[in-house]
Amino acid sequence: MKKGIVWLAGIFLVALLSGNWCAGAGSKLELCSLLSDHAVLQQGMAIPVWGWAEPDAEVSLSFAGQTVKVKADPDGRWQARLAPLSASKTSLEMTVRSGQQSLVVRDILVGEVWLCSGQSNMALTVSSCLNPEQEKAGGNQPLIRHFRVPLLHSAWPEEKVTGSWQVCSPEVVAGFTATGYFFAREIVKELGVPVGIVNCSWGGTRIEPWICPQGYSRVPQLKDLNQRVQAADPSTEAGRKHYLAYLEELKNWIEKARVQVEAGQNLPKPPAVPWIDGDQQQPTRIYNAMVHPLVSWAIRGVLWYQGESNGSEGESYYHKMRALIEGWRTVWNQGDFSFYFVQLPNFQYSDPKNAAGGDGWTLLREAQLKCLEIPRTGMAVTIDIGEAKDIHPKNKQDVGKRLARLALAGDYGRSLVPTGPLYKRHVVEGNKIRIFFDNVGQGLMVGRKDGLAPVEEVPGGRLSWFSIAGEDRKFVPAEAVIDGATVVVSSPGVPKPVAVRYAFAMNPAGCNLYNREGFPASPFRTDNW
User: Fold this and answer.
1) CATH topology of domain 110-221+281-410
2) Is residue 220 exposed (0-12), middle (13-18) or buried (19+ Cβ within 10 Å)?
């Protein structure tokens, strides 16, 4: 009995420490699930495709006039690389052969691919958004394809994930990510090319489980989390020491367990496993199971809608976003692909008399605004389309359009203003403060947003949710006036102002500063109090 227990433990630990735990080796010719019927491949860049076959077997892949031959590794995994392709609406076939086995993947299009990730507001489906019946009826969009990654978490980086592509139609569009679908619809309308959206989202999740180990190691401010992640990874020095100590404890436990079992006694408590255990909220666990199997699939970029579950945070969320973005870019090995995210909308209630604000998600939104310092990022401001009593606002049409605007400007060469006014700088002018903005476009205006209707200018309207403070740091409601491309802020009660805040509240209901392109200004403050 002792020999059997030790042998089984040894097999487990050798696999663990060699990095082959959960490997995808197998004799059956198999493709990654992203490479399946109705897939969309990314145009204009080299396309990695991969799968599994007999160990060391030759694999031949033919597609769009290209034939690529590769050899599977000793575990049976292979990866080929197709040369860049132009966009194609024509249904294409791919044939993969190895020995006597062959697979055919049908109805492949070439266009734009975007990874849609985050928590419940990304997962929210077309059936739960505004005008669902109308949207379903208009869902005959065969150039849009949707791939849903199942909800999984793991202590280990997984190689495989199940799933399949769906061609957009009135019968299936109800189950698509609404934000991703409305984004894709805009891109198809503007570019006329196929769009694939990979829906990798999970409601109620924090950001930590989405971050890969490489991301944690890049951000010094996440030292404590990084140490925990490193200690759970047997490929690191810290992790190896941790696992070797565990092996010694396990060896001793086996000896004691054998003695007690033979004596008919209860087993002693086993040593704690070194890996990160627990539910899906633990660091790296969702990345391991849902994102890692997708890594290397050619994408144009990422759409990210998350933050509610980290809503009590401030600058720490910025550091976690850095880890997320830089980590994913590192493991994808595709350069700094675009990463566009949604700033959290207005929600619940804020007292307009509280001029200082700072309640609820205010600091989280500020951290999101700071994320624009990360190269090739963009932020869709949604402070005007939330719902006070619903953490899942139903207007995802405008969210998708605003994200698409960022992509059209940042990735597809459209000369347009990508978003609403963003605070740039300020100057004190006597008893007033003048605020300068980026993304002014054709000018600033007082606007009003009602449902899905376009933003309307309010002639003679007054700006709301501006406050001002002097050296005493006591904020009071302020008068704010648009002056060309700037806003001038003042209050009779503050003769020597030093700071301004705008919409700096959980729900600044009715905040109304827009550019004439119809996009809202992001909440901001000029101080760091």
Assistant:
1) Rossmann fold (3.40.50)
2) exposed
List phi, psi (to 5°) of 111: -170, -125
Q: What is the pLDDT of residue 267?
A: 87
Give the number of residues written for the chain. 529
- Residue identified by tokens 């994913």 is 328
DSSP class of residue 212 equals: -
> Cβ-count burial of 512 within 10 angstroms (0-12 exposed, 13-18 middle, 19+ buried)?
buried
**CA torsion 140→146→151→153, rounded to 10°?**
-170
CA distance 94 to 108: 8
- pLDDT score at 19: 41
Number of H helices, E strands in the chain: 11, 25
Assess contact for 275 and 242: CB atoms under 8 A.
no
Pair type for strands 58-63 and 88-98: antiparallel
User: What pLDDT, on a 0 to 100 scale, did the predictor assign at position 380?
Assistant: 98
**DSSP classification of residue 388:** T
Q: How many CB atoms lie within 10 A of CB 277?
A: 11
Enumerate the domain spans of the chain.
110-221+281-410, 422-525
Which segments in the chain show pLDDT lower than 70?
Answer: 1-27
pTM equals: 0.93
Phi, psi angle pair for 372, to nearest 5°: -70, -10
Render pLDDT for 202-218 as a digit per residue (tens, 0 to 9). Answer: 999 999 999 999 999 99
